[in-house]
Design brief:
Helix content: 40-55%
Strand content: 5-15%
Oligomer: single chain
Shape: globular
Radius of gyration: 18 Å
CATH superfamily of the largest domain: dinb family like domain
Order of helices and strands: HHHHHEEHHHEEEHEH
Structural class: alpha+beta
Number of strands: 6
Strand order of the largest sheet: 4-3-5-6
């Protein structure tokens, strides 16, 4: 059983539980993330869940889909493509379509060889990394939903996969910007939701990041500015990395400005 697939379902279930009480009209409300509505969030998660599943189920069809996606810039960009792909689904109908698909998808991924190589928009990756990336994106885009609805999320230790992605993509943060890392990856020491200590990299007093695992995951997924966390960042390399850390694929993205992403008061 691939544990990351189980974690992906549990994280998706947590978001589904939050959204399941809403009415159709509520899904048209904009969030703090680029004005995306709750419909936009679900469109994005549903389409890329489908794509990740298709990379395993039908590689040739996935490659054709990806070529179509990459050519979408001339037709209004990625968001326009996602809206076309979803074929008019919105509100509770979209919510249930997403829920049904991720439930079936997670069951399939529990049975995949974790080392199987799967194609993606960036470099090929293992099945374990693929489903971990779906967990990461569900958690990251879930944050704008929790923020919008004024609910403080209670994380579980399944976010460890996101922390792993966050540290594994230290070099990617620079590669996507066509830069060279200014030094080795800093030491990262995090307190998990359970209270366990997670450590990554070579212990160092000069270059390190210490603090809450949820906040570290928020920074590397760019749902919070480092200035809006209590993370302790020591050293020039660590400070530079945390100022632009990016654990997701695609071109370079700028983290939100300080104070612009927060959980609204109810």
């Amino acid at each position: 059983m691939l544990q990351e697939a189980i974690d992906f379902k549990e994280e998706s279930d947590a978001l589904y539980g939050l959204l399941s009480t809403l009415e159709d009209a509520d899904f048209a409300q904009p969030t703090q993330f680029k004005g995306w509505t709750l419909n936009d969030v679900l469109e994005h998660l549903h389409m890329w869940n489908w794509a990740a599943n298709e990379s395993h189920a039908d590689e040739a069809n996935f490659v054709a889909f990806l070529q179509d996606v990459m050519g979408s810039a001339a037709d209004g960009g990625m968001k326009a493509y996602e809206r076309k792909w979803i074929n008019g689904l919105s509100g509770r109908a979209l919510l249930e379509a997403w829920h049904t698909f991720y439930t079936d998808m997670s069951a399939r991924f529990t049975q995949i060889d974790p080392k199987k190589r799967l194609k993606w928009a960036g470099p090929d990756m293992s099945a374990r990394s693929s489903i971990s990336a779906r967990l990461m994106e569900t958690w990251a885009h879930g944050q704008e939903v929790f923020d919008h609805l004024g609910v403080v999320r209670q994380d579980a230790d399944r976010i460890r996969s996101i922390a792993v992605l966050g540290t594994n993509t230290f070099g990617w943060t620079y590669a996507t910007r066509k830069q060279t890392p200014p030094g080795p990856m800093p030491y990262v020491r995090l307190t998990a939701p359970s209270g366990d200590i997670w450590e990554f990299g070579t212990p160092s007093e000069a270059e390190r990041v210490d603090g809450n695992a949820s906040e570290f995951c928020q920074v590397v997924t760019q749902v919070r500015n480092i200035a809006d966390t209590q993370l302790q960042v020591t050293g020039e390399v660590a400070q530079d990395w945390m100022s632009k850390a990016q654990c997701f694929a695609g071109g370079p993205e700028t983290p939100p400005a300080p104070g612009t992403r927060f959980t609204k008061s109810r």
